[in-house]
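Blinded run. Sample ID left blank on purpose so nobody reads anything into the name before looking at the predicted structure. Input follows.
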Amino acid sequence: MSPRSRSFDRKWILADGRLFRTPSQPLWAAHSEKQIYLISWLTGVLGKGPAAVVCALIPDLDSFRGSFGGKNVVPLWRDAPSTEANITTGLLDYLAEVYGESVSPEDFLAYCYAILGGPNYTRRFADDLATSAPRIPISTDADKFHQGVELGRRLIWLHTYGARFVPEGERPDIIPAGHARAVRPVPVTPEGYPNDFHWDEATETLHVGEGTFAPVSRAVWEFEVSGLRPVRSWLGYRMREPAGRKSSPLDEIRPREWPAEFTEELLEMLWVLEYTVNMSSDLTTFFEAILQGDVLAAEVLPQPTEEQRKAPEVPRGNATTPYEQMAFGEQ
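Blinded prediction complete.
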């Protein structure tokens, strides 16, 4: 099983409670093929770049800090059958009255992500975000809401690496190739395992040991999520001498040579970031249109109860799926 760690990164894990010290029980118990996790930094100050990221894999670490477990995660669903949306009771019904048509949990999430996942939210609200968690301006205009849903669905499809909101005609878990190619693949030999990387601005080439990837634009290389540069972070954790603090002797168990899968995964991330950068203009135009139009006042919207703000309880002794068995620590 492959959980999510840092933004845009994916790693393998053995989903066994005996190998976990502090698994997030509610996240594992509510996981399904429909689940989507929206992650922001709700307890810190957001920096440059998207105010949130999404993934279809269980976040086992704080995507913005890289530690402290899967914190600041807002799953779309509160249960594995995906019958209880993690949305304030009455909100979707209220929006249905405003727009004159039903609003699904998936569409509401997509709209929110079109707002938070664009490049301008953190820039426009930098002062407010210094003392407050992100807030969503909800348009009163049905057409603008639909535009956000369309943009958000595409962004979520890309950022979940093709696992969610798959467009018609596309295959699940596959995203279309971008422009970057492995011009010279990293040698799959012990001697060729890289321990350094750099980006060449003149040729738009990413050098990974003896391997080269191009074209990689400055916008992709410097893409940032609150100080984290995904390309540099991804590579840093996969060098022969990896970055990051070792917390267990298990960290010493590493490939003896650069796996060919690493090259494929690196290309996929470069493509995802390339498509994301290319969507920046449309996301910015949409965001500005929302702010210039009428939005719903917070006081007219249903408010969550204290119970709804809490993570759902995980009953012990009823483990029926691998996720629940992991969460309960059953042996």
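Unblinding after everyone has recorded impressions. The first helix runs from residue 25 to 29.
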